[in-house]
Amino acid sequence: MTRMNEPLVLGIETSCDETGVGIVRGHTLLADAVASSVEEHARFGGVVPEVASRAHLEAMVPTIQRACSDAGIALRDVDAIAVTSGPGLAGALLVGVAAAKSLALALDKPLYGVNHLASHVAVDQLEHGALPDRCLAMLVSGGHSSLLLVDDITLGVTPLGATIDDAAGEAFDKVARVLGLPFPGGPHIDRAARDGQITIDFPRGLSTRKDLERHRFDFSFSGLKTAVARWIEAREASGEPVPVADVAASFQEAVCDVLTRKAIDAAVSNDIDTIMIGGGVAANSRLRALAEERAAAKGIRVRVPRPGLCTDNGAMVAALGSELVARGRQPSALDLPADSSLPVTTVVA
Amino acid sequence: MLLAFDTATAQVSVAVHDGSDVVAERVSEQAMKHGEHLAPLIAEALASAGATVSDVTGIAVGVGPGPFTGLRVGLVTARTLGLALDVPVHGVCTLDVLAAEAVASGAVVGDFLVATDARRKEVYVAGYSAEGTRLSGPDVLRPADAASLRPVVGEGAVLYPADFPHAVGPVRPSAGWLARLVLSGTVEPLDPEPLYLRRPDAVATAARVAAERPSP
Ligand SMILES: [Zn+2]
């Protein structure tokens, strides 16, 4: 239910290859316009920062216009502007931050430079309502794999663990490449795995008793990626065909097994009854299913936004901005910098 | 009121023109801080002119060529302000701004060049008539390939004196002259599209090493 007295917030996201502009009123999503340059990066097998930055400049005004039109509002109706000020690609972030400042200046409205990771958590409020007083957030994407303790998302988050090498999404991209599947790898592996069986026991990173002493809530996917590549090489060397679907299913299982096992361990040991999963990898069907199944066994509730809200978008930034306005948090200054390595503990820059 | 700014060099320059002359001008003190300085300098320049954003009737922006990151800050700011204020945005080649000031200030008499820093040991360069009409360029060249005994305006001449021994006139583009140039009607306004002059692939390989998929 939209209440007209709730703040109308426009959010801008340009930390990687998606130009996102979202508009929310309170917890109600009004528009989520996204322009992606992913096709332009595909031939490089990864995001090229300069290509992404150029695309953000070209997409910015049309995406703002589309969001306003989808929401049925005029820019002058907006009460506050929120923008991802980090972490992400420096040159890409700058385009969004400069656009957000221009809107704040032209409309004479407050500006909130916000953390991309906190936005991934806040977005679920658009789907499942207010976050509980305490929850565990697992953010898994091409850039991050973190377990975060969230009490009040507008004040900060407490990092419990993170990847010590590759991000989960990065592992999907790299394994997709060795399997001859296109970039980005996540959706292609998910699809291929549906026709496969979990036949290969790939390693689970940081899961031995000794690893758990030091890295209980940390992840490692670099060894897994190497193990998959070696397995395929051995197959090819012996002249046998590579069972792409089985490799995809087995690799995906190894990733999802570790992610869900550690997330549930973190929730149980912190006496938390809600796990929120966000980031591009949260769109993975096996991760969702396994998390649901294992959480249910422990009486833990899992909240995952729909896939379109898990990947990078402007709505998540607007969702966090809306919460900041509602809680009366201090806006950012007009000299707000883009900070490519903004720490996860900083919600508003 | 015309609001003008240029971010195509290491510095940010902002000016406000009231139709008869430049009434406020600001230049950033630190280099390479376009994203941080531009918006506050716009607010400062407007306040100093006794104006608010709602008095702005047009925007003029330098479209480069210049280092990409700063250039984009200026262009996205111009386009977004243009959208939010519903005013036209006029693009001008940044080298033309330097040429206009050099001609108006009497720094040049005959044909001359404008050269700015393109980094990676190259310059952005264009050739002009005595009246300030662009005859060639802009191009991105190694200083040795653009070397000239003619008068050379801009930072390129300061950086590469062996190739451009005859440095004259302004070193950095001024937003005040950008505003005057647009209002003089002597330049064809361009769309606010960046003049990159280099393909993104040229920087792709090096950049990819740093970040393959860095955002969550
Ligand atoms: Zn993300």
DSSP, total strands of chain A? 10
Order of strands across the biggest sheet of chain A? 3-2-1-4-5
CATH class of the largest domain in chain B: Alpha Beta
* Weakly predicted, low-confidence segments of chain B: 206-216
CATH fold-level assignment of the largest domain in chain B? Nucleotidyltransferase, domain 5
> How confident overall, as mean pLDDT of chain A?
95
Binding site for Fe cation (chain A): 116, 120, 312
Protein name (chain A): tRNA N6-adenosine threonylcarbamoyltransferase
Keywords (chain A): Acyltransferase, Cytoplasm, Iron, Metal-binding, Transferase, tRNA processing
Organism (chain A): Nocardioides phosphati
Describe the structure.
The complex is a heterodimer of chains A (349) and B (216). Chain A is 45% helix and 17% strand. Chain A is α/β, with parallel strands linked by helices. In chain A, the strands form two sheets. Chain A has a five-stranded mixed sheet, sandwiched between helices. In chain A, a hairpin with a 2-residue loop joins strand 2 and strand 3 (28-36). In chain A, helix 7 (185-193) packs across helix 10 (244-269). The longest helix of chain A has 26 residues, at 244-269. Residues 206-216 of chain B have low confidence and may be disordered. In chain B, helix 1 packs across helix 2 (68-85) and helix 3 packs across helix 6. In chain B, strands 3-2-1-4-5 form a five-stranded mixed sheet, sandwiched between helices. Chain B is built from seven helices and ten strands. The chains are: A alpha/beta (349), B alpha/beta (216). The complex binds zinc ion (ZN). Zinc ion binds at residues 116, 120, 141, 279, 312 of chain A. Chain B: Residues 30-150 form the Gcp-like domain. Chain B: It holds the Pfam family TsaD. Chain B: This is tRNA (Adenosine(37)-N6)-threonylcarbamoyltransferase complex dimerization subunit type 1 TsaB.
